[in-house]
């Protein structure tokens, strides 16, 4: 993790308000923010450990344990809601109960005019996701495990 953190620190060096971008990059790289990263980040940014811990725990977005399943983010912002994201989120929750994926709400993925939209594992964006399209995507995830 230290090498990853060094690269991330270099990227955000001298940037005001670097804490959130650093946490986002770390989670993107590792899938979560390990507890032992907090003190290293605090030292790098000259913040207290409590300040860093407070930010990590305040935002639900940051995971503190490694994801052991795929994470599906369902956009629940206004435009996607108007196109059926509530039904999609409810449908996605069934897959979560079956232990296939973790489902999280997210508030805008930047594809508002072609919703409802989802993102898988913070990398794959999918637009105009119908219930059957969602099932097909979950099938692909299952096959790729
Ligand atoms: S409202 Fe869903 S992508 Fe913007």
Strand coverage percent: 5-15%
Structural class by helix and strand composition: alpha+beta
Q: What's the alpha carbon Rg, rounded to whole Å?
A: 17 Å
N- to C-terminal separation? 24 Å
Distinct ligand kinds: FE2/S2 (inorganic) cluster
The tally of strands reads: 4
CATH topology category name of the largest domain: Glutaredoxin
Structure notes:
The radius of gyration is 17 Å and the shape is elongated. The mean pLDDT is 91. 50% of the residues lie in helices and 12% in strands. A hairpin with a 3-residue loop joins β3 and β4. The longest helix has 14 residues, at 131-144. The protein has two domains: 2-58, no CATH class; 70-144, Glutaredoxin. It starts with a helix and ends with a helix. The chain has a four-stranded mixed sheet, covered by helices on one side. It has helices at residues 2-11, 19-30, 37-45, 49-58, 78-82, 85-97, 131-144, and strands spanning 70-75, 101-106, 118-120, 124-126. With 145 residues, the protein is α+β, with helices and mostly antiparallel strands. The protein binds FE2/S2 (inorganic) cluster. FE2/S2 (inorganic) cluster is lined by residues 75, 77-80, 108-112, 115, 117.
């Amino acid at each position: 993790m230290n090498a990853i953190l060094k690269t991330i620190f270099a990227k955000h060096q001298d940037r005001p308000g670097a804490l959130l971008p650093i946490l986002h990059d770390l989670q993107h790289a590792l899938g979560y923010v390990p507890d032992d990263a907090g003190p290293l980040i605090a030292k790098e940014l000259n913040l207290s450990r409590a300040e860093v811990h407070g930010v990590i725990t305040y935002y639900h977005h940051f995971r503190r344990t490694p994801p052991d399943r795929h994470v599906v983010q369902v956009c629940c912002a206004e435009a996607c809601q108007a196109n059926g994201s509530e039904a999609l989120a409810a449908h996605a929750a069934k897959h979560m109960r079956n232990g296939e994926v973790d489902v999280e709400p997210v508030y805008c993925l930047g594809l508002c005019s072609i919703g409802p939209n989802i993102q898988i594992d913070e990398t794959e964006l999918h637009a105009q996701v119908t219930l059957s399209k969602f099932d097909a995507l979950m099938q692909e995830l299952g096959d790729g495990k």
